[in-house]
Design brief:
Blueprint lengths: L1 H25 L5 H8 L3 H7 L3 H23 L5 H8 L4 H7 L2 H4 L5 H23 L9 H14 L5 H17 L4
Helix pairs in contact: 1-2, 1-6, 4-5, 4-8, 9-10
């Protein structure tokens, strides 16, 4: 029984990893069969884990939030933890470029997406509060501004190879954090 549960958990992880890879290479509308083939599982295994593309996308978003939450726990001890989190996006380009289309696919009034936004806000608020308290960030910075920041960064991730994306993303982060002033 335990081995079967472990295999089921591994299959789910394999499907999520495969989806990330396929969506990064071919976009969010790539055929689900490509993900199934990449994961090396059967079609029934996919549908045991995810009812449809939407559920797969939600699972990837939740996985992304878990990754962000882990990083945020490390950064919250620093006054500039919010800035470190934004800078860390450059190191997570492969994950983020695959995720960037997800936000456009799901209706923003979807209850699952509303829960994701609430969780995101709970993760970010302590970092924002600390940065504001230490005069690292402007006092009107909000969790919604984070979406604007990541939207700006997403623009640097499009249409180029990984090396160029990293270079552009580093430049975008520098401009976001340090501004355009001399």
């Amino acid at each position: 029984m335990l081995k079967r549960q472990q295999q089921a958990a591994q299959n789910r992880e394999d499907l999520l990893s495969a989806a990330l890879k396929i969506f990064r290479e071919q976009g969010i509308r790539a055929p689900l069969q490509l993900i199934i083939d990449e994961a090396g599982v059967g079609r029934a295994t996919f549908y045991r884990n995810f009812q449809d593309r939407r559920e797969l996308v939600i699972a990837l978003m939740e996985q992304g939030l878990t990754r962000m939450e882990e990083r945020a726990k490390n950064y919250v001890q620093y006054p500039d933890g919010m800035l470190q989190l934004v800078q860390n996006h450059v190191d997570n380009l492969p994950y983020l470029t695959a995720l960037m289309e997800y936000w456009r696919v799901i209706d923003h009034d979807d209850p699952a997406l509303i829960n994701i936004y609430q969780r995101r806000d709970q993760i970010l608020q302590p970092l924002i509060d600390k940065a504001i308290a230490h005069n690292i960030c402007r006092p009107d910075l909000t969790t919604k501004d984070y979406s604007l920041i990541t939207g700006i960064l997403r623009a640097s991730f499009q249409g180029m190879n990984d090396e160029e994306q990293i270079k552009l993303a580093k430049r975008a982060v520098d401009l976001l954090i340090n501004g355009m002033k001399a």
